């Protein structure tokens, strides 16, 4: 327990350890700590940013959805309107077509009637001529009296 | 456990309190001192080999451990050793930031070195007092030395040379930074012009001089005194082992209890040494106090 040379030796030892610690031990560790601190701060900021972006995205998604819904409703409305239009158009087309068909049918009927009448007239004429022929026998020449018979037939 | 068959209690204690001193004895020439009286007669130019060996060993352990971590240090998820080292570094840095207001890149590493090194040196106190000295004595006996004349103190901080060595370095740093920050005039002014103004110069010098000189002395003696007293109690407890079964049993319990309590003391003393160093250096950096 004497104070001796150990004192100086210890002072030198101490100084060497402090020097080494200061040069090779402290700076890298503190640097790493600071780096990690920065990293954590950055991570937290990023998380915060992500949070905000998420909220923003959600809001945007909501807006887009609302817009889409509105568009869809509009399209459905238009489609319905178009469908009604088409039905209406079809109805009117059908009506026109029906009328046309009816008209055509009436015309056809009329034509047929006329034709039948004509035929009938001719047949009556022929019959009348035949009857007249029988009555008159050879006295009447069918060629010379042709116009008289025709007139007669026309009056039927 | 005690090897006191041929030693009295007093000799046993004395044996434990003597350093392994290497030096030139006026009569026996160069060599290890055979007892504490011879160690005293060697005067100043002798060296306590055990103090040097264990303090350097523990310092190297500290540097090796921390350097290994610093080499592989990563800002990503730290491993076990790095976590532990970072915890200590963070603790020291926090203390420096709290107590030291100036700007000096040296203070924090200095505080770290003091804290860990002193803690390691104090930690040697928890090794059973006879274990290493006894093994060392047996080893030396192989080489033909008288085991009763082989001394070994394993706790460097129970050697005032070690504590004063550190305290004096801190003191020199306090002087250096006082003069660097305030100039010689400012430093002398601080010593002589307060608290009583320039007409009370002698009283000022005495008061401030004592307060300045008491810094390294109190720093060194506090650590030394605590560790020396703790060591002494371990030695006294160890003495009980030779007193029969009951005393030996009591000693076992006492040693355990004291060791548990001592864990607190060794940490506290390392912490106090560090904090006071920071505070003294902070005072050296401040213009006014």
TrEMBL record, chain A:
The chain crosses the membrane at residues 6-26. Keywords: ATP synthesis, Cell inner membrane, Cell membrane, CF(0), Hydrogen ion transport, Ion transport, Membrane, Transmembrane, Transmembrane helix, Transport. CDD domains: ATP-synt_Fo_b. GO terms for cellular component: endomembrane system; plasma membrane; proton-transporting ATP synthase complex. It is a single-pass membrane protein. Signal peptide: none annotated. Belongs to the ATPase B chain family. HAMAP family: ATP_synth_b_bprime. F(1)F(0) ATP synthase produces ATP from ADP in the presence of a proton or sodium gradient. F-type ATPases consist of two structural domains, F(1) containing the extramembraneous catalytic core and F(0) containing the membrane proton channel, linked together by a central stalk and a peripheral stalk. During catalysis, ATP synthesis in the catalytic domain of F(1) is coupled via a rotary mechanism of the central stalk subunits to proton translocation. Component of the F(0) channel, it forms part of the peripheral stalk, linking F(1) to F(0). The b'-subunit is a diverged and duplicated form of b found in plants and photosynthetic bacteria. Pfam families: ATP-synt_B. It comes from the Bacteria. GO terms for molecular function: proton-transporting ATP synthase activity, rotational mechanism; proton-transporting ATPase activity, rotational mechanism. F-type ATPases have 2 components, F(1) - the catalytic core - and F(0) - the membrane proton channel. F(1) has five subunits: alpha(3), beta(3), gamma(1), delta(1), epsilon(1). F(0) has three main subunits: a(1), b(2) and c(10-14). The alpha and beta chains form an alternating ring which encloses part of the gamma chain. F(1) is attached to F(0) by a central stalk formed by the gamma and epsilon chains, while a peripheral stalk is formed by the delta and b chains. It is found in: Cell membrane; Endomembrane system. This is ATP synthase subunit b.
TrEMBL record, chain B:
Gene3D superfamilies: ATP synthase, F0 complex, subunit A (1.20.120.220). GO terms for molecular function: proton-transporting ATP synthase activity, rotational mechanism. It is found in: Cell membrane; Membrane. The keyword Cell membrane applies. Key component of the proton channel; it plays a direct role in the translocation of protons across the membrane. PANTHER family: ATP SYNTHASE SUBUNIT A, CHLOROPLASTIC. The lineage of its organism: Bacteria, Pseudomonadati, Pseudomonadota, Gammaproteobacteria, Chromatiales. It comes from Thiorhodococcus mannitoliphagus. This is ATP synthase subunit a. The chain crosses the membrane at residues 44-66, 105-123, 162-179, 233-254, 260-281.
């Amino acid at each position: 327990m004497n104070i001796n040379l150990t004192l100086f030796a210890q002072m030198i030892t101490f100084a060497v350890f402090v020097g080494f610690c200061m040069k090779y031990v402290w700076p890298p560790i503190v640097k790493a700590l600071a780096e990690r601190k920065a990293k954590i701060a950055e991570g937290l900021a990023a998380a915060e940013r992500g949070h905000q972006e998420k909220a923003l995205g959600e809001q945007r998604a909501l807006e887009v959805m609302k817009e889409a819904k509105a568009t869809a409703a509009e399209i459905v409305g238009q489609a319905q309107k178009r469908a009604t239009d088409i039905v209406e158009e079809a109805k009117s087309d059908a009506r026109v077509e029906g009328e046309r068909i009816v008209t055509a049918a009436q015309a056809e009927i009329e034509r047929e009637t006329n034709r039948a009448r004509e035929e009938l007239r001719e047949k009556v004429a022929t019959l009348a001529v035949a009857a007249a022929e029988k009555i008159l026998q050879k006295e009447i020449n069918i060629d010379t009296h042709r116009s008289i018979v025709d007139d007669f037939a026309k009056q039927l | 456990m005690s090897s006191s068959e041929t030693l009295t209690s007093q000799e046993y204690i004395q044996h434990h309190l003597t350093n392994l001193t290497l030096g030139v004895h006026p009569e026996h020439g160069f060599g290890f001192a055979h007892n504490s009286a011879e160690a005293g007669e060697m005067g100043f130019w002798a060296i306590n080999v055990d103090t040097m060996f264990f303090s350097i060993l523990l310092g190297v352990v500290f540097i090796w451990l921390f350097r290994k971590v610093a080499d592989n240090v990563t800002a990503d998820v730290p491993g076990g050793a790095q976590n532990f080292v970072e915890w200590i570094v963070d603790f020291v840095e926090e203390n420096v930031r709290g107590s030291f207001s100036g700007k000096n890149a040296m203070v924090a590493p200095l505080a770290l070195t003091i804290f860990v090194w002193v803690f390691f040196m104090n930690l040697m106190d928890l090794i059973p007092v006879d274990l290493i000295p006894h093994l060392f004595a047996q080893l030396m006996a192989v080489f033909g030395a008288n085991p009763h004349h082989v001394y070994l103190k394993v706790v460097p901080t129970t050697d005032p040379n070690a504590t004063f060595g550190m305290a004096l370095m801190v003191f020199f740093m306090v002087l250096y930074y006082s003069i660097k920050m305030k100039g010689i005039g400012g430093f002398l002014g601080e010593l002589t012009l307060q608290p009583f103004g320039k007409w009370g110069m002698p009283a000022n010098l005495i008061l401030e001089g004592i307060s300045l000189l008491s810094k390294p002395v109190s720093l060194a003696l506090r650590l030394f005194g605590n560790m020396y007293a703790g060591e002494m109690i371990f030695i006294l407890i160890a003495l009980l082992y030779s007193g029969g079964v009951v005393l030996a049993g009591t000693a076992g319990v006492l040693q355990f209890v004291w060791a548990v309590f001592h864990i607190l003391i060794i940490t506290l003393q390392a912490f106090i040494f560090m904090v006071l160093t920071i505070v003294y250096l902070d005072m050296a950096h401040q213009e006014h106090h």
